[in-house]
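Async update (no meeting this week)

Hi team, since we skipped the sync, here's where things stand on the single-chain job. The sequence we agreed to prioritize is pasted below, unchanged from the tracker. I ran it this morning and attached the output directly underneath so nobody has to dig for it. Comments welcome in thread, and please keep replies under the output.
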Amino acid sequence: MYLGLDIGTSGVKAMLVDEKFAAVAVTTAPLTVERPHPGWSEQDPDSWIKACEAAIIELGRVNKDALSKLKAIGLSGHMHGATLLDAADKPLRPCIMWNDGRSGEQCLELEKRADFRGIGGNIVMAGFTAPKLLWVAQHEPEIFEKTAKVLLPKDYVRLWLTGDHVAEMSDAAGTLWLDVAGRKWSPELLEATGLNNSHMPSLVEGSDVSGMLRAELAEAWGVPQVPVAGGGGDNAATACGMGVITPGTGFLSLGTSGVLFAATDRFAPNTEDAVHAFCHAVPNTWHQMGVILSATDSLTWLSEMTGRTPAELAGLLPESINDPTSISFLPYLSGERTPHNNPNATGAFTGLQRVTQLPDLVQATMEGVAMAFADCVRVLKAAGTEIEAVYAVGGGARSDQWLQIMAAVTGLTLLKPEGGDYGAAFGAAKLGAACATGDTSARVFAPPKIDGEFRPDPVLAEKYAPKYQVYRDTYLNLQK
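Output:
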């Protein structure tokens, strides 16, 4: 048995799988986010420990025999969170989360201090860890002075599990302190933030052993003292769960936010278009991501405005989409990441007429989100990454109409996996298996079976081409 632990924003998920990677038991435990000021987002690091412990104890209650056969643990978690520890490994303040926006001014300052884009592979954004630490240095200097270690969320859980300060490459790349090409901490980027190597955990690959489960925890849970894998950041772990570890493979996540993830065999940044370039969770592999901030959240917004559920709205469309709507939609309801890096970008419907009906708005919303993904495809291509087919996951992938539109607009063939949980906890469990067996081949990281395939309809794609240009022009015109 292999255990995957995913520390999500709203809860912890524990997933136990067997040697064939069939799910044996899944448990969850909730987490809360504190927002003491507008734009702030924080969590109590010790709440992750309590939630993990609750989820694992529940696994033992559900299937004690299976848990007793545990061979390894893998970890995943939300990225970028700044967990500041004192010399006794106690948190000095709540973790500043990935979606915390307080450090905008510090981003501009860091860009001037060091080559974060060239070495770290990414624009300095408030979501990343480095500007958060500069904010603490400037606004909470007494806490900054006491900071002995900075850990990411899943690595604080690892400290509890093993007693070791360790990070792995995919999550570490999200700090902006990693030399992403060299897969090592960058003294230059750390110094720009007032830190040095002593503040950092040691580094391993995600499929490596990072430490062994502490004896007292093993005894309490009725399991052997098993190895704990390096694991991965949430998107990299999700990719591992779907076998997206070789160049040319990728996935498109149509969730609250949207992610286009592509595995690469080299470090290939494109910061001009706000592409994320990170290490992957397996050795000698990197990945690029285009990120859009309002994917299914755009349809959720429309559902809140109309009093219909997202599923009811999707049900208003015909089974087959044969023509674009005459309405354009910009899905920038929470600003936008790729390709604009504009937190102040706003959404818009254009082309509304008296005859416009609700189904038109639904289709326009789906089209607008698809065009945001087309932007991601375009800028990944500019960074040298060609992908033809990707796995489609997330809540929005349940809509066949949305996938028809997405394929025609982006030019991607969308592969719909068979029913199952291919999330970060599943990928973490596979990384656990890799660390226990030393096997990082397709036997462990096998792709899922395909339930359906959506190829771009050439006729519909031709109709969407001019509309995509209008979409791009509309954004530019609204900025004037």
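Quick observations from my side:
The first helix runs from residue 45 to 62.
DSSP finds 17 helices and 24 strands in the chain.
Reply here if anything looks off.
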